[in-house]
Amino acid sequence: MSDIVILGSGNVASHFVKAFSTCDIRIRQIYSRNSQTAADLCKVAKCEYVSKVDDIVADADFYFFIMNDEANAHIAKQISINSSSVAVHTAGSQSMNIFSGLTQNYGVFYPFQTFTKGVETDFSKVPICIEASNPETYLSLDRLAQKLGCKTFNIDESKREVLHLSGVFASNFMNHCVNIAEDILSDNNIDTNIIKPLLEQSSYKIINHGAQASQTGPALRNDNHTIEKHLKLIEKNAQYSAIYRVLTDSIKTKFNK
Ligand SMILES: NC(=O)c1ccc[n+]([C@@H]2O[C@H](COP(=O)([O-])OP(=O)(O)OC[C@H]3O[C@@H](n4cnc5c(N)ncnc54)[C@H](OP(=O)(O)O)[C@@H]3O)[C@@H](O)[C@H]2O)c1
After folding, report:
1. C-alpha 155 to ligand 1 mean position (Å)
2. Does the CB atom of residue 32 touch ligand 1 within 6 A?
3. What is the pLDDT of residues 105-130, one digit of tens each?
4. Which residue's alpha carbon is nearest to atom 48 within ligand 1?
5. 20 to 30 A Cα–Cα from 142, which one of 20, 29, 240, 249?
6. Distance (Å, rounded) from C-alpha 73 to C-alpha 189?
């Protein structure tokens, strides 16, 4: 049975801890600077919490660095682990070479999915993008992902960066646009729930017909009268106006309007 040390106790760490704990993969320790969030995760994993890098065991099979890029790189330089152990991070745009001075066996275990603490995730729908320093490490990471029920993809650093960029547009920016829509509704005393059927149908169309075929709206129709009305409604918010203009121009360019 494999054992794992988790470093970090944020969104992704919380989902991995839960997923590993439910599929017979032992979590040995959770390292975190945050005692409260770490204590919550240690209860789920029934494991020890450590707050000092020096207290991290050296002989676990896997070390999952699930912090931000800076902390991953910084702590990789501070800890020492056995040369046979595997160190990975879960980041979209960080090189696996941050671990080259730590062990011979290292890589990336990047989940191309969005995770928020407390919001259920179905791991059978999480593509895991793997990169590794050698074929044996790749295989061990692939087996670990299979145990979680995930599909795996052999993705090198340059492709992973592109994937991450596409995820920022498809998920982070889309989420922010919906957030703006919700703010506009509540600022005008309209129940934000009214937007949910629109979001469901938009996702359905994108998934089943593709984004290009699913585009509608005033920019696509080149309806400049409506566009001017909308800009007037948000004229007091310079950022919303700028985002509206940039996206409208992008749609017009894409569809040659
Ligand atoms: N969230 C996603 O949807 C998602 C998807 C795919 C990949 N990822 C990747 O997964 C990794 C973690 O993302 P996340 O969303 O889980 O981030 P997060 O929720 O912000 O959690 C980051 C964790 O790192 C800790 N941390 C930050 N700076 C630190 C430092 N200097 N020293 C020690 N610990 C530090 C935080 O501790 P505190 O609680 O004390 O701040 C927290 O436990 C990132 O590499 C991210 O790119 C995220």
Report:
1. 22
2. yes
3. 999 999 999 999 999 999 999 999 99
4. 12
5. 29
6. 46
What is the distance of C-alpha 92 from the center of its chain? 8
Task: Tell me the two tokens of residue 17.
Answer: 């801890």
Residue 3 to residue 28: CA distance in whole angstroms? 6
Among residues 72, 128, 129, 130, which one has the least CA distance to residue 102? 72
Q: Is the CB of 14 under 6 A from ligand 1?
A: no
CA–CA distance, 16 with 110 (Å, rounded to integer): 12
Architecture (CATH level 2) of domain 161-254: Orthogonal Bundle (1.10)
Query: Which ligand 1 atom is nearest residue 38's CA?
Result: 43
Ligand 1 contact via 92 beta carbon (within 6 Å): yes
- What integer best gives the mean pLDDT of the chain? 97
